[in-house]
Structure formats: structure tokens, C-alpha cells
Prior knowledge:
The complex is a heterodimer.
Chain A: H1 3-15, H2 18-56, E1 60-65, E2 68-70, E3 73-75, E4 83-84, H3 85-94, E5 98-113, E6 116-125, H4 128-132, E7 137-140, H5 145-149, E8 154-157, H6 159-165, E9 176-179, E10 182-190, E11 200-204, H7 205-213, E12 223-224, E13 226-231, H8 237-251, E14 262-265, H9 267-310, H10 312-320, H11 325-362, H12 370-397, H13 400-405
Parallel strand pairs in A: 6-11, 8-10
Antiparallel strand pairs in A: 1-13, 1-14, 2-3, 4-12, 5-6, 5-9, 5-13, 7-10, 8-11, 9-10
Helix pairs in contact in A: 1-11, 2-9, 2-11, 2-12, 3-8, 9-11, 9-12, 11-12
Chain B: E1 8-19, E2 22-34, E3 39-43, H1 50-57, E4 65-70, E5 73-74, H2 80-90, E6 91-94, H3 106-115, H4 121-134, H5 150-162, E7 168-172, H6 180-195, E8 199-204, H7 207-210, E9 215-220, E10 223-229, H8 235-238
Helix pairs in contact in B: 3-4, 3-5, 4-5, 5-6
Amino acid sequence: xxxxxxxxxxxxALRLNPLRSFLTMLGIVIGVASIVTxxxxxxxxxxxxxxxxxxxxxxxxxxxxxxxxxxxVRLKDGSKLTMTESDVQxxxxxxxxxxxxxxxxxxxxxxxxxxxxxxxxxxxxxTGHFMVxxxxxxxxxxxxxxxxxxxxxxxxxxxxxxxxxxAPGDDPIGAQIRIMKVPLEVVGVLDRKGPAQDDxxxxxxxxxxxxxxxxASNINRxxxxxxxxxxxxxxxxxxxRAEIENLLRQRHRIPAGQEDDFKVQDPAAAMEAQxxxxxxxxLLLVAIxxxxxxxxxxxxxxVMIVSVTERTREIGIRRALGGRMRxxxxxxxxxxxxxxxxxxxxxxxxxITLSMTVARMAGWVTSIDGQAIGLSLVFSIATxxxxxxxxxxxxxxxxxxxxxxxx
Amino acid sequence: xxxxxxxxxxxxxxRTYRTEGVAVAAVRNVxxxxxxxxxxxxxxxxxxxxSTLMNMIxxxxxxSEGAVYLQGANVADLTEDRRSSLRARSIGFVFQSYNLLxxxxxxxxxxxxxxxxxxxxxERLARAEASLRAVGMLHRAHHFPRQLSGGExxxxxxxxxxxxxxxxxxxxxxxxxxxxxxxxxxLSLFAALNRTGQTVVMITHDPGIATQCRRTIHLHDGELxxxxxxxxxxxxxxxxx
Lengths: 407, 241
């Protein structure tokens, strides 16, 4: 008997009992579907993080406001804008490892172009921002020095905003858009950097302060919400970070022993750590899902043992008619394999559907991983072989004479 | 040398079973030969060792002592796999309770032994058709066993036994579950087969069957008590074949 004949006989036997066959493979279906889904969500989350890491740019440090003491009361991080434009200048001028740096303030507003409008982040910054993030233009130009100094009414759009405000054929460059009733000329459109990054409109820092977000930068008109700085080389990150901390402590006149009123972060490193955490959680979930696969395998073994007992007479007949022990073993092994493979295939389909549903409903990024699919199918086959072997072996060992006597 | 050897030869065959430490001799020191083209009835009351004998002739069991030779070869010297292959190709079993697979239709049941001869599905079905035609059951090819009467099921079982053109057809109480008229029809089918040269060994406790066979072996308590040949029971029919 060939493998093919084994599969034919197995399919025939399983078709006669569709409900039982389905219930038998349900454990495998659930196990494989969970593994595929967990993998899809996990690698989706990793992809998203990787994209964020890429979008920040390589060797970037981010300086944000820290805790502040006001009359002995400790306010939470960021409650006061402690950094200023002159801090940016000082960092740029006094720390040789820093290639570029820019301060930003940001808020959200409605942007309007003719009949269309869109709610997006308005980021007031300087051209240095694009240098730090290695962010190229798709069309147009960056801000000019005059525009930066004189609160020019110009805007550079992220690709999402450009897409939402302009019809596919229209050239945004030179067009007039309005933000909070202020007309602005579009001077540039940025390259795509990722869905989360492209939904933004940049204006010169001075423009943002004077025309839109001035009231938000309370107390000090010189202040910025955060600073990003690019370090020349990978190995200089730690050194540059320490120098920035020293410089800002001096400039902010923070006495020794008191907490910094700012934080210097390496976002890429933080995200890499986060990525590691996601990987760990995903692996843990896969391990849990694998238990379901194990339970599925045990359920297959259980049903197969019952099936062998039920079909003892059939086994006796097949042996009497010339079936060798290995033919009987192959027949039952094929049944277990077909159950697992079919269950695995249904599970893969279910897992893909589930992860696409999750992606749509929860808005998560999921990524169907060919490797995960392959892996779970291999696991299914292995389950079939491991848990199908004992019942098949048992069937093949039956004495044909005894088997023919059973009712 | 092999040409001269009988088809089946039993030489001082004994078969002892051990149940709960007690040895029970089912067959004791039985010797006889069966030649190509014979039709033999093995008779005896229940418990006389008929079925044990048939299991050994059919290569399902091996003697405890003595030897069974199939075409001059000691079957005990063959591997289990080889004996299985021989069952598929050289032995055709017919059982009292038909033993058709309930979940397969008649033609698939008939074709089953050919699965174990490594024959492709198309040829299996073509040969199964021919075999069903030979027993007059072609019109029931796609009926399932439960849709067939006892006599019809036994005809399908005989078609299955014949499909691989076996050296020998072994029938264990083939009429035991049938009414006397249907039983007589099945017996005449075996007689007709034998006239075409098919070797048939039939196990029965019904003396009526023995009259259909030219040779009758009687067993009692596992021992051979008589081996009688009828010279020419049906001379008019034997000239037909």
C-alpha cells in the first residue's frame, strides 16, 4: 500500500464521520489559529516599533522637560516647558558631537484647503528638525532663514496631510492652505516615513509661537516643548548625552543634588528595549497556544484509540485479505495526519481571519508571517505523527484471528 | 520439484493454545495434502479444530509443531509481511458472517485485496467488476452491504475472494448464516468454481455440504478421523468443464 492509498483510505474513513472528525481536529484548529494570530499581532507590533525607530532617525537624542520644583511643590514631568531656543543654540555650538539640533512646539489644529479639511499635528520647528531625522523632501523646499526669523506664513506638509487636502493630480507646492484662519503657503511636501509620522504639518517655530501656539508656551516666549539632537556617530551617544546633561544643568542653574528639570532620552534604544519585551510576551503567548496544540494532539490520540477499538473487525478483515502490519499502521497514521493537516489548514485560515479582524477592530498593525504559518503546519504534522503513532501501532499489532472474532 | 509438490501439505501439524497457563490442543498431529483443483470439505463438530486448521492453511496462524507447506515452501520460514502478501495474492477467504466492510460499497469491498497487491485504482475497479459479474452481482456493485441480502453479501464476499485469482479459496461455514435455498445456491457457486479448476476448501458442520465435495476430511477433538474421496460423484457435470 502506498502513502497515497493510505491518504485515500483515511479521507474516506474521516468523511463518514464528519462531525466526529471535526471535533477531533478542533484542538489543533484552535492551537494553530492562536499561534498564527499571536505571531501576527506580535510581529505587527514589532514592525510598528521598527518603523518608529526608523522614523526617529539614527543616533537621535530627545530632550524633554522633567520634574520641576515650584515653591517646594514637585510638579509632574512636562508641566512646565523648561527648555529654550538658546538651549538649542548652546547644545549645537558647545557640544562637538552634535551635528544638528532643533526645538519644537506642537499642538493640533484643523488645516483647510478649499473644500477639504483635516485635523492634524502642527509642529513648529526649524529646518534642523528635518536634518536630525534624515527626513527628505518629496517636493519643494525647507524653510528659508528669513521665514524662520520672521514668522513666515509657510508650511511643509507630511505626505498624509498632502494626500488628504489635495486631489491626486494637484500640485500642493505654492498652494494656499489655512490653519486657524491664518493663510499659509505650502513650500514643501515630505517623503513618506510611516503612517504615524506622516500625519503632520510643519511651520517655522516663530510662526507657531506668534500665530498659533503662543499661549501654550506659557511664561517664557523663548521656550520649546522638546529638543531633538543628532549625534555624529553611534559610539558617541553616551558621551554626547552626558555632555548635554552637564550643559543644561549649568544653563538651568540646577544645584548639585537636585533633580534635573529635563530628561535626555535615546528613543531608539528605549524602543529596542520595548521590542525585546514584545518579543518575550509574544513568545510566552505562543508557548501557551502550543499547549492547546498539545491538548489537540492528545484528543486526536484519544479518538484514534477509540476508533481502532471500534474498527477491530475491519482491521482483522484487512489483515486476512493481505494487509501487512505496516499497511494497517500506515492507514491509521494517515488518518491522524489528515486530521492534523486539515485542522492545521483550517487553523491557519482561522488565524489569518482572526488577526485581520483584530487589525480592523482594534486598529492594531498585524503582519501575517509566512514563517509562523509554516511553523504551525510543521507542528501540526509533528503532532499527527507523535500522537497518531501509538494508536496506529496498536492497530497493526492486533492479531488478525482475534480481530476477526470481535463483533 | 516444486511442480510435483502438492498445493498445500500439512505434515504432523499440531496447534496448542495457552490460556491462563493451561495448554489446550486445538489441532493434534494432522497430516494431509491438497492438490491443485480439488474441492475439499473439512467437517467436524464445533470445537473440533476446523477453524484453527483453516487459519493455518490461510497463513493467519502457524502450527506449534509440524509444518504447513504452500507449494512446497514451509510457511513458518516466511516473514509475517511475506505471509500477508501471500494472503492477498494466493488465498481467498470466505467467512460465515461475510465480513464485508460496512462503510464501503460492493465493488470497493471486492477490490480491497488488490490494494494490498499494489494495483492501481482503475485496474482494481475493472477487475472487481469482472469478479462481480462472475458471481452474478454486477447489478449490485454500488450497493452497501446493509442494502444486500445475506446470499447477496456472500456472493460479493466470494467475488472478493476470487479477485486476485488465488491458488485456493478457503470458506469457513459459507452457508452457516443462510437459509437452505440460498445456501444451496452458494454451494453450487463453489461447485461451479471448482469445475473451472479453482481449488476450494470448505469448512462446515453440515453433512449436506459434504455430498457436494469429492473429498471430505473429518476432524474430532483436533484429530483427523477420516479422509474420504468420492471417485466421481457427479460424472455428468465433470465432463462439462
